[in-house]
Amino acid sequence: MEGKPVPKMIFINLPVTDVARSTAFYEKLGFTRDPKFSNEQASMMAWSDEIKVMLLAHPFYSTFTKKPVADAHATSQVLLCVSADSRDGVDQLVATAEAAGGLPDPGPTQEMGEMMYGRSFEDLDGHHWEVGWMNLAAMGEVPHQPIVEEA
Fold this sequence. Notes:
Elements: E1 10-16, H1 19-28, E2 32-34, E3 42-46, E4 51-57, H2 58-61, E5 79-83, H3 87-99, E6 103-104, E7 110-112, E8 116-122, E9 128-134, H4 136-139
Parallel strand pairs: 1-4, 5-9
Antiparallel strand pairs: 2-3, 3-4, 6-8, 7-8, 8-9
Domain VOC: 8-134
Protein name: VOC family protein
Pfam families: Glyoxalase
């Protein structure tokens, strides 16, 4: 007998130097630790029912790849982005990250008037998170334009 379909989810795996310290940081941002999938090597942190962040100690992370673990303080490998409900929500999450020990605004503020607003922060291991707000009502009907010009 088949059960209910499993919802689509995304699992973001991040190498961290200290699982407990990183877990505490993400809890301060509003993530919830799932103890069923957490131990001294990893913490599964839920942002929502669909978005999970796996905080993996470097040695454990290394078991999933043959490549060296990047130092996110020195290199950029990915830009992660979450949405906020308002401009104030963007500012609040960045301020919370800073108060928890993160670095505010490693990237430029994205100011697009009444349509969009975004800022960013780095977590304790240098992973770059963007926080964005979009006012879909103010955008109206936007004509499709490719991000990359076709040759």
